[in-house]
Amino acid sequence: MPNYAVGHKTPDSDSICSAIALSYLKTTLGEETVPARLGELSPETLFILDKFGFEQPELKTSFAGEGIYIVDHSDRIQGPDDIDEATILGIIDHHKLGDITTSTPLEIWVRPVGCTNTIIKMMYDFYDVEIPKNIAGAMMCAILSDTVIFKSPTCTTADIKCVEALAEIAGISDAKALGMEMFAVKSAVLGTPIRDLVLRDFKDFNMHGNLVGIGQLEVLDLAIFDDMKLELFADIAKLKAEGNRHTVLLLLTDIMKEGSEMLVISDNADLTEKAYGKTLVDGKVWLDGVLSRKKQVVPPLQDSLA
Amino acid sequence: MPNYAVGHKTPDSDSICSAIALSYLKTTLGEETVPARLGELSPETLFILDKFGFEQPELKTSFAGEGIYIVDHSDRIQGPDDIDEATILGIIDHHKLGDITTSTPLEIWVRPVGCTNTIIKMMYDFYDVEIPKNIAGAMMCAILSDTVIFKSPTCTTADIKCVEALAEIAGISDAKALGMEMFAVKSAVLGTPIRDLVLRDFKDFNMHGNLVGIGQLEVLDLAIFDDMKLELFADIAKLKAEGNRHTVLLLLTDIMKEGSEMLVISDNADLTEKAYGKTLVDGKVWLDGVLSRKKQVVPPLQDSLA
Protein backbone atom coordinates (compact mmCIF):
# COMPACT_ATOMS: atom_id res chain seq x y z
CA MET A 1 0.00 0.00 0.00
CA PRO A 2 1.56 3.33 -1.03
CA ASN A 3 1.61 6.46 1.09
CA TYR A 4 0.05 9.68 -0.15
CA ALA A 5 1.16 13.30 -0.36
CA VAL A 6 -1.72 15.73 -0.17
CA GLY A 7 -2.11 19.50 -0.03
CA HIS A 8 -4.99 21.61 1.22
CA LYS A 9 -8.61 21.83 0.14
CA THR A 10 -9.28 23.91 -2.98
CA PRO A 11 -5.75 23.06 -4.04
CA ASP A 12 -3.49 25.72 -5.52
CA SER A 13 -0.39 25.21 -7.65
CA ASP A 14 1.89 24.94 -4.62
CA SER A 15 -0.24 22.18 -3.05
CA ILE A 16 -0.33 20.17 -6.26
CA CYS A 17 3.27 20.67 -7.41
CA SER A 18 4.69 20.01 -3.94
CA ALA A 19 2.62 16.80 -3.66
CA ILE A 20 4.02 15.66 -7.00
CA ALA A 21 7.61 16.66 -6.14
CA LEU A 22 7.53 15.14 -2.67
CA SER A 23 6.02 11.90 -3.96
CA TYR A 24 8.83 11.49 -6.48
CA LEU A 25 11.43 12.21 -3.78
CA LYS A 26 9.97 9.75 -1.26
CA THR A 27 9.44 7.06 -3.90
CA THR A 28 13.05 7.47 -5.04
CA LEU A 29 14.11 7.05 -1.41
CA GLY A 30 12.30 3.70 -1.36
CA GLU A 31 8.98 4.72 0.17
CA GLU A 32 6.29 4.49 -2.50
CA THR A 33 4.28 7.72 -2.35
CA VAL A 34 1.49 8.94 -4.61
CA PRO A 35 0.30 12.54 -5.02
CA ALA A 36 -3.37 13.22 -4.33
CA ARG A 37 -5.67 16.24 -4.48
CA LEU A 38 -8.64 17.21 -2.33
CA GLY A 39 -10.53 19.10 -5.05
CA GLU A 40 -10.68 20.53 -8.54
CA LEU A 41 -7.68 22.30 -10.03
CA SER A 42 -7.48 25.95 -11.09
CA PRO A 43 -6.69 27.01 -14.68
CA GLU A 44 -3.24 28.11 -13.46
CA THR A 45 -2.43 24.66 -12.07
CA LEU A 46 -3.80 22.92 -15.17
CA PHE A 47 -1.54 25.19 -17.25
CA ILE A 48 1.51 24.07 -15.23
CA LEU A 49 0.63 20.35 -15.41
CA ASP A 50 0.04 20.61 -19.13
CA LYS A 51 3.26 22.58 -19.70
CA PHE A 52 5.41 19.93 -18.01
CA GLY A 53 3.49 16.83 -19.05
CA PHE A 54 1.84 15.74 -15.79
CA GLU A 55 -1.53 14.08 -15.31
CA GLN A 56 -3.79 15.50 -12.60
CA PRO A 57 -3.07 13.79 -9.27
CA GLU A 58 -5.72 11.35 -8.08
CA LEU A 59 -8.82 12.99 -6.55
CA LYS A 60 -8.93 11.42 -3.10
CA THR A 61 -10.61 12.83 -0.02
CA SER A 62 -10.52 9.93 2.44
CA PHE A 63 -7.27 8.68 3.97
CA ALA A 64 -8.51 6.54 6.87
CA GLY A 65 -5.94 3.87 7.70
CA GLU A 66 -3.34 5.26 5.28
CA GLY A 67 0.01 6.98 5.67
CA ILE A 68 0.05 10.58 4.47
CA TYR A 69 2.43 13.47 3.98
CA ILE A 70 0.69 16.80 4.48
CA VAL A 71 2.00 19.58 2.24
CA ASP A 72 1.34 23.33 2.18
CA HIS A 73 -0.82 23.46 5.33
CA SER A 74 -0.89 22.41 8.97
CA ASP A 75 -4.45 23.47 9.88
CA ARG A 76 -6.87 20.59 10.39
CA ILE A 77 -9.70 22.46 8.74
CA GLN A 78 -7.74 22.73 5.48
CA GLY A 79 -6.78 19.07 5.32
CA PRO A 80 -8.64 15.81 4.64
CA ASP A 81 -11.81 15.49 6.74
CA ASP A 82 -10.77 12.11 8.17
CA ILE A 83 -7.20 13.20 8.93
CA ASP A 84 -7.59 11.78 12.48
CA GLU A 85 -7.91 8.28 11.06
CA ALA A 86 -4.75 8.58 8.94
CA THR A 87 -1.14 8.24 10.05
CA ILE A 88 0.62 11.52 9.41
CA LEU A 89 4.18 10.67 8.34
CA GLY A 90 5.31 14.22 7.69
CA ILE A 91 4.39 17.85 7.16
CA ILE A 92 6.10 20.20 4.70
CA ASP A 93 4.78 23.72 4.93
CA HIS A 94 5.58 27.43 4.90
CA HIS A 95 2.60 28.80 6.86
CA LYS A 96 2.09 29.51 10.53
CA LEU A 97 1.89 26.32 12.58
CA GLY A 98 -1.71 25.10 12.69
CA ASP A 99 -3.56 22.72 14.95
CA ILE A 100 -2.68 19.35 13.45
CA THR A 101 -1.29 17.03 16.15
CA THR A 102 -0.05 13.45 15.92
CA SER A 103 0.30 10.50 18.26
CA THR A 104 3.66 9.38 16.85
CA PRO A 105 6.94 11.07 15.87
CA LEU A 106 7.17 12.29 12.29
CA GLU A 107 9.18 14.38 9.81
CA ILE A 108 8.40 18.09 9.66
CA TRP A 109 10.03 20.68 7.41
CA VAL A 110 8.53 24.13 7.97
CA ARG A 111 10.37 27.27 6.87
CA PRO A 112 9.34 30.94 6.73
CA VAL A 113 9.79 31.08 2.95
CA GLY A 114 7.48 31.99 0.09
CA CYS A 115 6.56 28.53 -1.14
CA THR A 116 6.43 24.89 -0.04
CA ASN A 117 8.35 23.90 -3.15
CA THR A 118 11.35 25.93 -1.98
CA ILE A 119 11.43 23.62 1.05
CA ILE A 120 10.98 20.52 -1.11
CA LYS A 121 14.07 21.65 -3.06
CA MET A 122 15.97 21.75 0.27
CA MET A 123 14.78 18.19 0.90
CA TYR A 124 16.06 17.01 -2.48
CA ASP A 125 19.42 18.61 -1.65
CA PHE A 126 19.42 17.11 1.85
CA TYR A 127 18.67 13.60 0.58
CA ASP A 128 20.98 14.14 -2.41
CA VAL A 129 18.37 13.17 -5.01
CA GLU A 130 18.46 14.64 -8.51
CA ILE A 131 15.34 16.57 -9.54
CA PRO A 132 13.92 15.46 -12.92
CA LYS A 133 13.55 18.25 -15.49
CA ASN A 134 9.75 18.29 -15.58
CA ILE A 135 9.41 18.23 -11.79
CA ALA A 136 11.88 21.13 -11.53
CA GLY A 137 9.72 23.11 -13.99
CA ALA A 138 6.53 22.49 -12.03
CA MET A 139 8.24 23.38 -8.74
CA MET A 140 9.59 26.57 -10.27
CA CYS A 141 6.14 27.64 -11.48
CA ALA A 142 4.64 27.00 -8.04
CA ILE A 143 7.25 29.29 -6.48
CA LEU A 144 6.61 32.00 -9.09
CA SER A 145 2.89 31.68 -8.33
CA ASP A 146 3.16 31.77 -4.52
CA THR A 147 5.64 34.65 -4.52
CA VAL A 148 3.72 36.57 -7.22
CA ILE A 149 6.88 36.52 -9.37
CA PHE A 150 8.99 37.64 -6.37
CA LYS A 151 6.77 40.65 -5.57
CA SER A 152 5.07 39.21 -2.49
CA PRO A 153 6.47 40.22 0.92
CA THR A 154 6.58 36.48 1.65
CA CYS A 155 9.30 36.07 -1.00
CA THR A 156 12.75 35.39 0.44
CA THR A 157 16.24 35.16 -1.02
CA ALA A 158 15.88 31.39 -0.71
CA ASP A 159 12.86 31.43 -3.06
CA ILE A 160 14.65 33.53 -5.68
CA LYS A 161 17.77 31.36 -5.58
CA CYS A 162 15.60 28.25 -5.75
CA VAL A 163 13.80 29.48 -8.88
CA GLU A 164 17.18 30.20 -10.49
CA ALA A 165 18.42 26.70 -9.69
CA LEU A 166 15.20 25.02 -10.84
CA ALA A 167 15.10 27.05 -14.07
CA GLU A 168 18.56 25.79 -14.88
CA ILE A 169 17.56 22.17 -14.21
CA ALA A 170 14.38 22.60 -16.26
CA GLY A 171 16.22 24.37 -19.07
CA ILE A 172 14.06 27.49 -18.89
CA SER A 173 15.89 30.67 -19.89
CA ASP A 174 13.34 33.28 -18.78
CA ALA A 175 11.52 32.21 -15.64
CA LYS A 176 9.82 35.59 -15.11
CA ALA A 177 8.33 35.56 -18.61
CA LEU A 178 6.86 32.12 -17.92
CA GLY A 179 5.51 33.56 -14.66
CA MET A 180 3.75 36.37 -16.52
CA GLU A 181 2.26 33.86 -18.97
CA MET A 182 0.97 31.89 -15.99
CA PHE A 183 -0.60 34.97 -14.38
CA ALA A 184 -2.26 35.85 -17.68
CA VAL A 185 -3.94 32.41 -17.57
CA LYS A 186 -4.90 33.10 -13.96
CA SER A 187 -6.38 36.49 -14.91
CA ALA A 188 -8.82 35.02 -17.41
CA VAL A 189 -11.80 35.05 -15.05
CA LEU A 190 -14.56 36.04 -17.50
CA GLY A 191 -17.06 33.32 -18.21
CA THR A 192 -16.26 31.43 -15.01
CA PRO A 193 -19.23 30.82 -12.67
CA ILE A 194 -19.04 33.23 -9.72
CA ARG A 195 -18.93 30.47 -7.07
CA ASP A 196 -16.05 28.78 -8.89
CA LEU A 197 -14.16 32.09 -8.85
CA VAL A 198 -14.77 32.70 -5.15
CA LEU A 199 -13.66 29.19 -4.25
CA ARG A 200 -10.71 29.11 -6.66
CA ASP A 201 -8.24 29.93 -3.90
CA PHE A 202 -10.28 29.86 -0.72
CA LYS A 203 -9.17 28.86 2.78
CA ASP A 204 -11.02 28.55 6.04
CA PHE A 205 -9.31 29.44 9.29
CA ASN A 206 -10.34 28.79 12.86
CA MET A 207 -9.43 32.09 14.52
CA HIS A 208 -9.93 31.79 18.26
CA GLY A 209 -13.18 29.91 17.74
CA ASN A 210 -14.39 32.06 14.82
CA LEU A 211 -14.65 30.43 11.39
CA VAL A 212 -13.16 32.85 8.86
CA GLY A 213 -13.05 32.10 5.13
CA ILE A 214 -10.60 34.05 2.98
CA GLY A 215 -10.53 33.84 -0.81
CA GLN A 216 -7.99 35.46 -3.09
CA LEU A 217 -7.91 36.17 -6.81
CA GLU A 218 -4.65 37.46 -8.24
CA VAL A 219 -4.89 39.18 -11.61
CA LEU A 220 -2.86 41.47 -13.86
CA ASP A 221 -5.55 44.21 -13.77
CA LEU A 222 -8.40 44.64 -11.27
CA ALA A 223 -10.61 46.31 -13.88
CA ILE A 224 -11.62 42.83 -14.96
CA PHE A 225 -13.79 42.62 -11.83
CA ASP A 226 -15.56 45.97 -12.35
CA ASP A 227 -18.81 44.44 -13.58
CA MET A 228 -18.75 41.52 -11.16
CA LYS A 229 -18.54 43.20 -7.77
CA LEU A 230 -22.24 42.89 -6.88
CA GLU A 231 -22.32 39.23 -7.85
CA LEU A 232 -19.13 38.58 -5.88
CA PHE A 233 -20.63 40.28 -2.80
CA ALA A 234 -23.84 38.29 -3.11
CA ASP A 235 -21.90 35.06 -3.36
CA ILE A 236 -19.58 35.59 -0.40
CA ALA A 237 -22.64 36.58 1.68
CA LYS A 238 -24.20 33.26 0.67
CA LEU A 239 -20.97 31.44 1.48
CA LYS A 240 -20.88 33.03 4.94
CA ALA A 241 -24.45 31.90 5.69
CA GLU A 242 -23.99 28.38 4.26
CA GLY A 243 -20.88 27.72 6.31
CA ASN A 244 -22.08 29.47 9.44
CA ARG A 245 -18.94 31.58 9.17
CA HIS A 246 -18.07 34.62 11.28
CA THR A 247 -16.47 36.36 8.30
CA VAL A 248 -15.81 35.87 4.62
CA LEU A 249 -13.16 37.99 2.90
CA LEU A 250 -12.37 38.09 -0.78
CA LEU A 251 -9.05 39.61 -1.80
CA LEU A 252 -8.90 40.95 -5.32
CA THR A 253 -5.19 41.33 -5.80
CA ASP A 254 -3.67 43.49 -8.52
CA ILE A 255 -0.19 42.08 -9.00
CA MET A 256 0.94 45.00 -11.17
CA LYS A 257 -0.34 47.80 -8.85
CA GLU A 258 0.80 45.63 -5.92
CA GLY A 259 -2.18 45.88 -3.65
CA SER A 260 -5.53 44.24 -2.91
CA GLU A 261 -9.13 45.30 -2.77
CA MET A 262 -10.79 43.41 0.06
CA LEU A 263 -14.50 42.59 -0.08
CA VAL A 264 -15.87 41.97 3.40
CA ILE A 265 -18.93 40.21 4.81
CA SER A 266 -18.56 39.90 8.59
CA ASP A 267 -20.34 39.75 11.93
CA ASN A 268 -17.95 42.51 13.06
CA ALA A 269 -18.72 45.87 11.43
CA ASP A 270 -15.33 47.24 12.53
CA LEU A 271 -13.32 44.20 11.44
CA THR A 272 -11.01 45.95 8.94
CA GLU A 273 -10.57 48.94 11.22
CA LYS A 274 -9.40 46.75 14.08
CA ALA A 275 -7.23 44.46 11.97
CA TYR A 276 -5.87 46.79 9.29
CA GLY A 277 -6.67 50.32 10.48
CA LYS A 278 -8.88 50.95 7.45
CA THR A 279 -12.61 51.74 7.42
CA LEU A 280 -14.89 49.84 5.04
CA VAL A 281 -16.61 51.84 2.34
CA ASP A 282 -19.50 50.00 0.71
CA GLY A 283 -18.13 46.77 2.13
CA LYS A 284 -14.77 47.27 0.40
CA VAL A 285 -11.35 48.56 1.29
CA TRP A 286 -8.14 49.01 -0.72
CA LEU A 287 -5.06 47.68 1.05
CA ASP A 288 -2.01 49.15 -0.60
CA GLY A 289 1.00 46.84 -0.81
CA VAL A 290 -1.00 43.85 0.42
CA LEU A 291 -0.30 40.80 -1.76
CA SER A 292 -0.03 38.01 0.79
CA ARG A 293 -2.97 36.44 2.60
CA LYS A 294 -0.62 34.45 4.81
CA LYS A 295 1.71 37.22 5.87
CA GLN A 296 -0.34 40.42 5.62
CA VAL A 297 -3.99 39.44 5.99
CA VAL A 298 -4.21 36.48 8.38
CA PRO A 299 -1.87 37.50 11.26
CA PRO A 300 -3.41 40.95 12.05
CA LEU A 301 -6.91 39.51 11.69
CA GLN A 302 -6.13 36.57 13.95
CA ASP A 303 -4.62 38.92 16.54
CA SER A 304 -7.59 41.29 16.38
CA LEU A 305 -9.99 38.39 17.05
CA ALA A 306 -8.04 37.12 20.07
CA MET B 1 17.36 42.03 22.66
CA PRO B 2 18.51 38.43 22.13
CA ASN B 3 16.24 35.52 21.32
CA TYR B 4 16.09 32.46 23.56
CA ALA B 5 16.28 28.72 23.01
CA VAL B 6 14.36 26.77 25.61
CA GLY B 7 13.51 23.12 26.21
CA HIS B 8 10.74 21.55 28.25
CA LYS B 9 9.85 21.79 31.91
CA THR B 10 11.92 19.57 34.23
CA PRO B 11 14.67 19.79 31.65
CA ASP B 12 16.65 16.72 30.66
CA SER B 13 20.06 16.59 29.01
CA ASP B 14 18.60 16.77 25.50
CA SER B 15 16.61 19.93 26.32
CA ILE B 16 19.64 21.66 27.82
CA CYS B 17 22.29 20.55 25.33
CA SER B 18 20.08 21.28 22.32
CA ALA B 19 19.31 24.77 23.69
CA ILE B 20 23.05 25.40 24.05
CA ALA B 21 23.90 23.97 20.62
CA LEU B 22 21.09 25.77 18.83
CA SER B 23 21.94 29.09 20.50
CA TYR B 24 25.53 28.85 19.30
CA LEU B 25 24.37 28.01 15.77
CA LYS B 26 21.84 30.85 15.55
CA THR B 27 24.26 33.35 17.10
CA THR B 28 26.93 32.31 14.60
CA LEU B 29 24.38 32.89 11.83
CA GLY B 30 23.95 36.46 13.08
CA GLU B 31 20.88 36.07 15.27
CA GLU B 32 21.91 36.46 18.91
CA THR B 33 20.32 33.59 20.84
CA VAL B 34 20.74 32.60 24.47
CA PRO B 35 19.99 29.18 26.00
CA ALA B 36 17.51 29.12 28.90
CA ARG B 37 16.10 26.47 31.22
CA LEU B 38 12.66 26.12 32.79
CA GLY B 39 13.82 24.33 35.93
CA GLU B 40 16.55 22.63 37.94
CA LEU B 41 19.03 20.32 36.25
CA SER B 42 19.50 16.61 36.92
CA PRO B 43 22.81 15.16 38.11
CA GLU B 44 23.29 13.67 34.63
CA THR B 45 22.98 17.06 32.93
CA LEU B 46 25.24 18.72 35.51
CA PHE B 47 27.80 15.98 34.79
CA ILE B 48 27.70 16.81 31.06
CA LEU B 49 27.97 20.58 31.57
CA ASP B 50 30.87 20.10 33.97
CA LYS B 51 32.61 17.65 31.65
CA PHE B 52 32.59 20.06 28.72
CA GLY B 53 33.02 23.32 30.62
CA PHE B 54 29.57 24.90 30.33
CA GLU B 55 27.75 27.09 32.86
CA GLN B 56 24.12 26.24 33.58
CA PRO B 57 21.84 28.11 31.15
CA GLU B 58 19.90 31.01 32.65
CA LEU B 59 16.83 29.96 34.68
CA LYS B 60 14.04 31.82 32.93
CA THR B 61 10.35 30.94 32.96
CA SER B 62 8.71 34.00 31.42
CA PHE B 63 9.15 34.86 27.75
CA ALA B 64 6.37 37.39 27.15
CA GLY B 65 7.29 39.74 24.31
CA GLU B 66 10.41 37.76 23.40
CA GLY B 67 11.45 35.62 20.46
CA ILE B 68 11.98 31.95 21.34
CA TYR B 69 13.12 28.73 19.78
CA ILE B 70 11.36 25.74 21.31
CA VAL B 71 13.52 22.62 21.55
CA ASP B 72 12.71 19.02 22.45
CA HIS B 73 8.92 19.47 22.76
CA SER B 74 5.90 20.82 20.93
CA ASP B 75 3.24 20.37 23.63
CA ARG B 76 2.05 23.61 25.22
CA ILE B 77 1.82 22.04 28.64
CA GLN B 78 5.54 21.21 28.58
CA GLY B 79 6.70 24.68 27.53
CA PRO B 80 6.84 28.10 29.20
CA ASP B 81 3.56 29.06 30.87
CA ASP B 82 3.33 32.35 28.96
CA ILE B 83 4.23 30.83 25.58
CA ASP B 84 1.21 32.59 24.03
CA GLU B 85 2.79 35.96 24.72
CA ALA B 86 6.10 35.03 23.08
CA THR B 87 6.93 34.92 19.37
CA ILE B 88 7.85 31.36 18.45
CA LEU B 89 10.61 31.59 15.85
CA GLY B 90 11.20 27.88 15.51
CA ILE B 91 10.68 24.38 16.88
CA ILE B 92 13.29 21.62 16.83
CA ASP B 93 11.94 18.36 18.16
CA HIS B 94 11.81 14.58 17.79
CA HIS B 95 8.49 13.83 19.50
CA LYS B 96 4.96 13.52 18.17
CA LEU B 97 3.57 16.88 17.06
CA GLY B 98 1.91 18.60 20.00
CA ASP B 99 -0.60 21.41 20.27
CA ILE B 100 1.62 24.48 19.97
CA THR B 101 0.31 26.79 17.23
CA THR B 102 1.63 30.13 15.97
CA SER B 103 0.20 33.19 14.24
CA THR B 104 3.22 33.68 11.95
CA PRO B 105 5.38 31.45 9.75
CA LEU B 106 8.42 29.90 11.44
CA GLU B 107 11.22 27.34 11.12
CA ILE B 108 10.44 23.79 12.18
CA TRP B 109 12.79 20.81 12.12
CA VAL B 110 11.07 17.68 13.44
CA ARG B 111 12.44 14.22 12.65
CA PRO B 112 11.53 10.74 13.94
CA VAL B 113 14.98 10.20 15.44
CA GLY B 114 16.19 9.41 18.95
CA CYS B 115 17.31 12.85 20.06
CA THR B 116 16.84 16.55 19.29
CA ASN B 117 20.62 16.97 19.11
CA THR B 118 20.76 14.63 16.12
CA ILE B 119 18.52 17.14 14.33
CA ILE B 120 20.62 20.10 15.53
CA LYS B 121 23.63 18.37 13.94
CA MET B 122 21.66 18.27 10.65
CA MET B 123 21.06 22.01 11.05
CA TYR B 124 24.78 22.70 11.54
CA ASP B 125 25.45 20.71 8.36
CA PHE B 126 22.66 22.48 6.48
CA TYR B 127 23.90 25.94 7.46
CA ASP B 128 27.52 24.81 7.01
CA VAL B 129 28.63 25.93 10.48
CA GLU B 130 31.48 24.17 12.27
CA ILE B 131 30.57 22.63 15.64
CA PRO B 132 32.97 23.63 18.45
CA LYS B 133 34.61 20.74 20.27
CA ASN B 134 32.83 21.24 23.61
CA ILE B 135 29.40 21.67 22.01
CA ALA B 136 29.96 18.48 20.01
CA GLY B 137 30.75 16.65 23.28
CA ALA B 138 27.59 17.88 25.00
CA MET B 139 25.44 17.05 21.95
CA MET B 140 26.97 13.56 21.83
CA CYS B 141 26.17 12.91 25.50
CA ALA B 142 22.58 14.05 25.02
CA ILE B 143 22.16 11.54 22.19
CA LEU B 144 23.70 8.74 24.29
CA SER B 145 21.29 9.67 27.08
CA ASP B 146 18.13 9.87 24.96
CA THR B 147 18.90 6.66 23.07
CA VAL B 148 20.03 4.83 26.25
CA ILE B 149 23.40 4.23 24.58
CA PHE B 150 21.67 3.07 21.36
CA LYS B 151 19.48 0.50 23.15
CA SER B 152 16.22 2.42 22.95
CA PRO B 153 13.80 1.51 20.13
CA THR B 154 13.76 5.26 19.35
CA CYS B 155 17.42 5.02 18.28
CA THR B 156 17.96 5.30 14.52
CA THR B 157 20.94 4.90 12.22
CA ALA B 158 21.04 8.71 12.04
CA ASP B 159 21.61 8.90 15.84
CA ILE B 160 24.42 6.35 15.78
CA LYS B 161 26.17 8.04 12.86
CA CYS B 162 25.71 11.39 14.53
CA VAL B 163 27.38 10.18 17.75
CA GLU B 164 30.29 8.85 15.70
CA ALA B 165 30.71 12.19 13.93
CA LEU B 166 30.38 14.21 17.14
CA ALA B 167 32.84 11.96 19.01
CA GLU B 168 35.39 12.61 16.31
CA ILE B 169 34.87 16.39 16.52
CA ALA B 170 35.03 16.27 20.34
CA GLY B 171 38.09 14.02 20.31
CA ILE B 172 36.44 11.26 22.35
CA SER B 173 37.71 7.79 21.55
CA ASP B 174 35.14 5.67 23.41
CA ALA B 175 31.68 7.26 23.32
CA LYS B 176 29.92 4.23 24.81
CA ALA B 177 32.22 4.20 27.84
CA LEU B 178 31.42 7.84 28.48
CA GLY B 179 27.76 6.91 28.14
CA MET B 180 28.09 4.24 30.83
CA GLU B 181 29.84 6.72 33.12
CA MET B 182 26.94 9.11 32.59
CA PHE B 183 24.35 6.44 33.40
CA ALA B 184 26.26 5.56 36.55
CA VAL B 185 25.86 9.19 37.65
CA LYS B 186 22.17 8.96 36.74
CA SER B 187 21.76 5.76 38.79
CA ALA B 188 22.98 7.36 42.02
CA VAL B 189 19.51 7.98 43.42
CA LEU B 190 20.16 7.21 47.09
CA GLY B 191 19.94 10.23 49.37
CA THR B 192 17.83 12.23 46.91
CA PRO B 193 14.47 13.45 48.27
CA ILE B 194 11.65 11.28 46.84
CA ARG B 195 9.83 14.20 45.21
CA ASP B 196 13.00 15.29 43.45
CA LEU B 197 13.42 11.77 42.10
CA VAL B 198 9.85 11.54 40.84
CA LEU B 199 10.12 14.92 39.13
CA ARG B 200 13.63 14.37 37.76
CA ASP B 201 12.33 13.42 34.33
CA PHE B 202 8.61 14.06 34.51
CA LYS B 203 6.27 15.17 31.72
CA ASP B 204 2.61 16.04 31.67
CA PHE B 205 0.49 15.17 28.66
CA ASN B 206 -2.99 16.25 27.71
CA MET B 207 -4.46 13.01 26.38
CA HIS B 208 -7.90 13.68 24.92
CA GLY B 209 -8.74 15.97 27.84
CA ASN B 210 -7.10 13.80 30.51
CA LEU B 211 -4.06 15.15 32.30
CA VAL B 212 -1.49 12.34 32.49
CA GLY B 213 1.88 12.75 34.19
CA ILE B 214 4.64 10.30 33.31
CA GLY B 215 7.97 10.17 35.12
CA GLN B 216 10.93 8.01 34.21
CA LEU B 217 14.09 6.99 36.05
CA GLU B 218 16.71 5.12 34.05
CA VAL B 219 19.27 3.17 36.07
CA LEU B 220 21.84 0.44 35.66
CA ASP B 221 20.07 -1.86 38.16
CA LEU B 222 16.48 -1.66 39.41
CA ALA B 223 17.44 -3.19 42.76
CA ILE B 224 18.38 0.30 43.87
CA PHE B 225 14.66 1.09 44.19
CA ASP B 226 13.77 -2.00 46.27
CA ASP B 227 13.51 -0.11 49.54
CA MET B 228 11.85 2.96 48.02
CA LYS B 229 8.75 1.56 46.30
CA LEU B 230 6.26 2.48 49.02
CA GLU B 231 7.59 6.01 49.26
CA LEU B 232 7.51 6.35 45.47
CA PHE B 233 3.87 5.15 45.38
CA ALA B 234 2.89 7.56 48.14
CA ASP B 235 4.50 10.44 46.30
CA ILE B 236 2.99 9.80 42.87
CA ALA B 237 -0.43 9.46 44.55
CA LYS B 238 0.16 12.88 46.12
CA LEU B 239 1.29 14.27 42.77
CA LYS B 240 -1.88 12.97 41.12
CA ALA B 241 -4.09 14.67 43.73
CA GLU B 242 -2.12 17.93 43.73
CA GLY B 243 -2.28 18.34 39.97
CA ASN B 244 -5.82 17.03 39.60
CA ARG B 245 -4.39 14.45 37.22
CA HIS B 246 -6.21 11.50 35.68
CA THR B 247 -3.14 9.31 35.92
CA VAL B 248 0.44 9.40 37.17
CA LEU B 249 2.89 6.78 35.89
CA LEU B 250 6.44 6.26 37.05
CA LEU B 251 8.71 4.19 34.84
CA LEU B 252 11.63 2.54 36.58
CA THR B 253 13.79 1.58 33.64
CA ASP B 254 16.56 -0.99 33.87
CA ILE B 255 18.86 -0.16 30.97
CA MET B 256 20.87 -3.38 31.34
CA LYS B 257 17.84 -5.75 31.53
CA GLU B 258 16.16 -3.54 28.90
CA GLY B 259 12.71 -3.16 30.37
CA SER B 260 10.69 -1.00 32.74
CA GLU B 261 8.68 -1.49 35.87
CA MET B 262 5.71 0.86 35.74
CA LEU B 263 4.17 2.20 38.94
CA VAL B 264 0.58 3.31 38.33
CA ILE B 265 -1.87 5.60 40.13
CA SER B 266 -4.89 6.18 37.89
CA ASP B 267 -8.62 6.84 37.76
CA ASN B 268 -8.85 3.86 35.37
CA ALA B 269 -8.30 0.55 37.13
CA ASP B 270 -7.80 -1.21 33.78
CA LEU B 271 -5.44 1.39 32.31
CA THR B 272 -2.43 -0.88 31.72
CA GLU B 273 -4.62 -3.71 30.48
CA LYS B 274 -6.20 -1.50 27.83
CA ALA B 275 -3.00 0.27 26.82
CA TYR B 276 -0.37 -2.44 27.18
CA GLY B 277 -2.30 -5.71 27.60
CA LYS B 278 -0.84 -6.25 31.07
CA THR B 279 -2.71 -6.48 34.36
CA LEU B 280 -1.50 -4.48 37.35
CA VAL B 281 -0.28 -6.41 40.37
CA ASP B 282 -0.01 -4.30 43.52
CA GLY B 283 -0.09 -1.19 41.33
CA LYS B 284 2.94 -2.33 39.34
CA VAL B 285 3.64 -4.03 36.07
CA TRP B 286 6.85 -5.14 34.32
CA LEU B 287 7.00 -4.12 30.67
CA ASP B 288 9.70 -6.16 28.98
CA GLY B 289 11.67 -4.33 26.30
CA VAL B 290 10.07 -0.99 27.15
CA LEU B 291 12.73 1.73 27.37
CA SER B 292 11.06 4.65 25.61
CA ARG B 293 8.31 6.79 27.10
CA LYS B 294 7.83 8.57 23.80
CA LYS B 295 7.63 5.58 21.51
CA GLN B 296 6.40 2.73 23.69
CA VAL B 297 4.47 4.26 26.57
CA VAL B 298 2.72 7.40 25.31
CA PRO B 299 1.19 6.30 21.94
CA PRO B 300 -0.71 3.20 23.16
CA LEU B 301 -1.88 5.09 26.26
CA GLN B 302 -3.05 8.06 24.20
CA ASP B 303 -4.89 5.74 21.81
CA SER B 304 -6.52 3.83 24.67
CA LEU B 305 -7.85 7.09 26.15
CA ALA B 306 -9.33 8.31 22.83
UniProtKB/TrEMBL annotation, chains A, B:
SUPFAM superfamilies found in the cross-reference section: DHH phosphoesterases
Domain DHHA2: 179-305
GO function term, MF aspect, one: inorganic diphosphate phosphatase activity
A GO cellular component annotation in the UniProt record: cytoplasm
Presence of the UniProt keyword Calcium in the record: no
InterPro entries from the UniProt entry: DDH_dom, DHH_sf, DHHA2, DHHA2_dom_sf
Enzyme class: hydrolase
Mitochondrion in keyword set: no
Catalysed reactions, semicolon-separated: diphosphate + H2O = 2 phosphate + H(+)
Cofactor(s) needed by this chain: Mn(2+)
EC number: 3.6.1.1
Keywords: Hydrolase, Manganese, Metal-binding
Annotated protein name in UniProt: inorganic diphosphatase
Organism of this sequence: Colwellia hornerae
